[in-house]
Amino acid sequence: MEGVVGIDLDSVRVVNFSASSLRIAVFEGDDRPRKEDYISVVFENGSNRFDASIDLIDGRFWVYRLYLLSGDLGPDRLGFKDCVRAAYKAIEGYRKLYNTGYSAEFSQLLSAVLGNESLTIDLKDPRPVGEPSFLKGSTLLARVDGEKGTLEIIYYKRFSRVTFVWYEKIKGRWITPWRSISLHVSLKTGLVIGLGDNMMHYKVATTDVKISREEAIRIA
Fold this sequence. Notes:
By secondary structure, this protein is α+β, with helices and mostly antiparallel strands. The protein has one domain. It has 3 helices and 9 strands, in the order E-E-E-E-H-H-E-E-E-E-E-H. It has helices spanning 80-98, 104-115, 213-219; strands spanning 13-23, 35-45, 48-57, 60-70, 139-145, 149-156, 161-168, 180-186, 192-197. It is globular, with a radius of gyration of 20 Å. The N and C termini lie far apart (57 Å).
């Protein structure tokens, strides 16, 4: 929580800790043991109370979430580059903690955004550059293409957050949310309020079919 999310553990008071496990239904033909572990920590920081939860599948990280249970976080405080810095620090901490080499390009693209002085975005008057690939009802602030994947930076005014999603390119050209890493930064606190890693748990099957024109006509 400290190295990735940005919470100063010395300034909070833990009031509740709970953990539970359950079996996950599997698809026919998949006989692997599948277990989901759910960990929840309720803590207070001043007059605000939060719930931080982590989901693990077969002992591997899947999703982290941070909710405000009570209190008032006040107005938005962060600018665009502040959110990018928080995201970069978080994904670097996550990469080192879990040794996720596939998230290295995520960090590199965030660093490129930070170093791009010509990229100036005012969250009070955002100018969309297009539509997000999958997350509708939001504003796409930037899309950065990498060698292995694509980074989308998305603004949710209603929820006072900026979302960063790195999608792996499948066969070098198309993307799917099932092969992605997503990270959400609060504009009010600068904390990471969500982190999801589907890369550990989902694979995409692809098939190259080589067939002659004559054979295709015969089959048709």
